[in-house]
């Protein structure tokens, strides 16, 4: 699924006896393994999913007949990247259960769950919910602290919760905002808004001070964002800038599910991908764009781009705009 489109999956086009298995297979491929217990007979199963990519974040708007979804202990140990799932209720009621807590969701309310632990999503009377999938590495808050605010209902208690609920609802329910360039432009601000909200909860519970240096992870990630385009961005440089050892840098990042090299590489590639898609960049060579984002070896950049996106930089550029005068 490309970043400029919304893919629709609808069970109504399938024979009733095939719907449950088809849904399980689709979820396992596109979102993550989940056991689904339908609360209606096979002929009454109705599920419609609209999936979009928002930069590094995923969005799934789901409507269905009654069901319960469970991520088991075994599924939570799979090799998919650690992710926070934010369930935002559109209508009706739902429930998020994790780590012994239960969050009842009413319209406009939302709760988190952590894919590295078992969880349950219960929609006995039907589901009408937006799900945001945010990589744990993007949140850059202590993982242990985030786990303690999962399955906690949010959305009405504070102005920050209301702001997040309104923003995420608007993005999810406006087709023009969840596709094309708008989706890419809104991805990072949306993540930052969620991060700011979660940081207030972490601070309120005193979790960010257990110990105080855990909050350094957020500063490290922000430093990496600011210096992403610089070729000499390295573990040694980052550690020196924060007066810590390289070893401790890796410890901090690992606690938030961040692999340093992969993080830098993925975000540099994403910036190159966005730059290559802009009509205003047609007069700039691919090699120049790659160098601008820290790739000093054009051949290495081309291989990495193809491994990540399935096409070469030149092929990607050609699909975004007429290639009549594009420089090499």
UniProtKB/TrEMBL annotation:
SMART domains: HTH_ARAC (SM00342). The keyword Transcription regulation applies. PROSITE patterns: HTH_ARAC_FAMILY_2 (PS01124). Signal peptide: none annotated. The lineage of its organism: Bacteria, Bacillati, Actinomycetota, Actinomycetes, Streptosporangiales. InterPro entries: AraC-bd_2, AraC_XylS_family_regulators, Homeodomain-like_sf, HTH_AraC, Tscrpt_reg_AraC-type_HTH. Keywords: DNA-binding, Transcription, Transcription regulation. Residues 218-319 form the HTH araC/xylS-type domain. The keyword Heme does not apply. This is Helix-turn-helix domain-containing protein.
